[in-house]
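Figure 3 (text version): structure tokens given as input.
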């Protein structure tokens, strides 16, 4: 028989002194989302049940981004593929600011471009989106945000 060496207990997460460190930008909720993907309710009840990507846990777009980031970080290729499929499925339903924000993070120029086209549409969504603090801050140093602010000040809004 082969002898297996005993773990020295120094690996990441194997002791209180050497905790698992999440990658930058990933919060505790992101790890919970990964656990939900790894251990969905359906499989806990019956391990032989296979489920499709659309049935997994009802996670949000942001949760799937976290799952994708963690799967990439820890080389979980099957989970990374699943997360990519879900991100592609959910991307069209996101706000323009989210498309731009996550397009930059995921290195997806198609989401980024779609987000900018949505902002520039004739429905006035650019100004509306940039006025909403929850969306405007995600765009960072967006020159259009400054222009909207100047217009608002000139119009007394």
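Below: residues designed for each position.
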């Amino acid at each position: 028989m082969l002898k297996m060496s005993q773990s020295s207990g120094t690996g990441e997460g194997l002791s209180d002194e050497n905790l698992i460190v999440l990658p930058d930008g990933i919060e505790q909720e992101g790890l919970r989302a990964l656990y939900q993907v790894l251990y969905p309710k359906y499989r806990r009840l019956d391990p032989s049940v296979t489920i499709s990507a659309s049935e997994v846990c009802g996670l949000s777009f942001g949760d799937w981004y976290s799952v994708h980031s963690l799967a990439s970080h820890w080389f979980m290729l099957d989970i990374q593929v699943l997360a990519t499929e879900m991100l592609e499925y959910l991307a069209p339903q996101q706000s323009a600011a989210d498309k731009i924000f996550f397009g930059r993070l995921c290195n997806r120029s198609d989401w980024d471009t779609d987000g900018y086209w949505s902002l520039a549409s004739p429905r006035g969504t650019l100004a509306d989106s940039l006025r909403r603090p929850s969306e405007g801050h995600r765009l960072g140093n967006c020159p259009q945000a400054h222009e909207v602010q100047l217009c608002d000040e000139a119009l007394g809004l």
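Residues 1-5 have pLDDT under 50 and may be disordered.
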